[in-house]
Fold these 2 entries.
Entry 1:
Amino acid sequence: MLIRILVLALLFYLPFKAYCQTRYEQTGWAAWFNNTKLNAKWGLYFDVQMRTYDNWTRIRNLLLRPGINYYIRPNQTATAGYLYTPTFPAPTAANGKTLTEHRIWEQYTISHPVRNGSLSHRFRLEQRFIGRTNETLFAQRFRYFFRDIQPLIPTPNGFKKGPFIALQNELFFNIQNKIKVNGSVFDQNRAYIAAGFRASSKLDIEAGYLNQMIKGADNNTMNNIIQIAVYTRF
């Protein structure tokens, strides 16, 4: 399955490189992902992220994403929520203003054991209200994400503590109003590899490299990102 997904990502990557002018960026992202279980069926989700401009000059985006989890089974979760994300003006913008995007989103996540770790798949649908200079654009987007965590020191009875390697990839597709977004069904791809440490069943800390390919209407972007992330579970 992982090989098929990586091949699919490569099929999008090749035309991205071959036919469009591409600009390159070096940025940093910091993220906190939290899941809080209220009872056997319901819980709360929340993540907050900060993303910098090219060469780490200042904050470009702030993402606040709360949601409500419904636990279908121990390994299957349905979630619905809201996202607020402002994009702050570039340091070089003379009269730039903050542009804000609001989203409603729904997702389904399923996970299963693989070797000594676990593999999760996430399918997310987004209704996007994108703030632009002279209008608010409505569009819908579909995202498929997988994440594989493998402990470096195998432990019996499940991975509860110790160092690990994380591998993930996410594909983004415009499914409504693609002409005004970027003129293409393909929106972007994010490939990521990280090293981390599981301090307990409630806390993971990791740092890694994320490669983000963004399909633009005129020019594409290849973003090389250093990401630091914290995952908590209560």
Entry 2:
Amino acid sequence: MPEALQISVSSAQEAQTYLRQQVFDLCVIQLPLPDEFGIRFARQCATQYPIGVLLLSKKETYDQIAYQVKEDGIFVLGLPCSKEIIYQALRCLHASCLQVQKANLQIQKLRRRIREDRLIYQAKLILIEQYHWSEEKAHHYIEQLSMNSSQKKAAVAQMIVDKSMIELK
């Protein structure tokens, strides 16, 4: 992993302050924390921020803690363990965070595409209703306007919908 900003704090409250001010990739929490045990804070980090969370617990409490956070996407390691194990866990956590980010970007692209497709479909329906065109002719018209004006089909469709709304008023 490249060298990154590392901040060490002694309480959940202090960590919360940093998390509000700056974006971090990972959060490592050694349990227990002085102001709370730390599971609530770990869950809060995992749900409120785009951040990977690693909990370090004593071996005696590992099973209980791992069970409590198993649905939250939080990694748990039992201490004591070697630096190599912690480093490997951080690399795995970082890799999984990157996968989640990629998946989220793909979801955003798909949602945008669905919005654009709905808009184009709405514009086609307007053209079909107003001019009694076939779906094929409405589709071709939108494509032609798009090419002639060097705009995306969604932008042309938005103009058609907007013009239709103005005419209805």
